[in-house]
Amino acid sequence: MDETLMVILLLSGFCTPCTPFRNSYLFINKNMTWDEAYQYCLMEQNELAQIQSLENNTSMMNIQTAGYTDKACIGLFENASDWTWVDGETATYFEWGNVQPDNIDTDEYCVTIDNDGRWGFANFSLKKPFVCQDGN
Fold first, then answer.
1. Which of 4, 5, 36, 64 is the most core-located residue (most Cβ within 10 A)?
2. How far apart are the first and last CA of the chain?
3. Strand segments (E) across the chain
């Protein structure tokens, strides 16, 4: 498309540039393993939450948790030597808390988030509440 025409369309409001997708997060106060939480979110037409920016992390901190203040699982897990989101993308944004993972035991950890937006890690078999995100 001609640059001049694109500028005219943008200025007229006919065509607007894409804005980043705002995720809609939902806290699920049910204790489940990471795999169970993953399946639960999929059955509800959602996926475990993915936080790929500071904006996403801030949005996550604003979800309603009905007073729950401990850690909840999100859709990030250790896959061999990489931290991977449930959609298969390698993570590039992190908000680790006081303790950062050291990758000693590969394929055994999933990521949790606390009410301050700091991330931690837990064994897949640990039962915790979790956060889904709208897959639309």
1. 36
2. 29
3. 25-32, 46-48, 72-79, 82-85, 109-113, 119-123, 128-134
| Torsion region of 47: left, alpha or beta (phi above 0 gives left; psi -120 to 50 gives alpha) | beta
**Token duo for residue 96:** 């680790």
Q: Which of 135, 136, 132, 134 is nearest to 74 (CA)?
A: 132
pTM of this prediction?
0.76
Tell how far CA 23 is from the center of its chain: 9
Spell out a b/e string for 27-62, using b for 16 or more CB atoms within 10 Å of the CB, else e.
bbeeebbbeebbebbeeeebbbbbbeeeebbebbee
How far apart CA 12 and CA 54 sit, in angstroms, is: 32
Could you tell me if 132 and 26 are in contact, meaning their C-beta atoms sit under 8 angstroms apart? yes
Per-residue tokens: 119:
């991330």
| Other beta carbons less than 10 A from residue 76's beta carbon | 27
> What letter represents residue 9's amino acid?
L
Residue 63 pLDDT grade (very low, low, confident, very high; cuts 50, 70, 90): confident
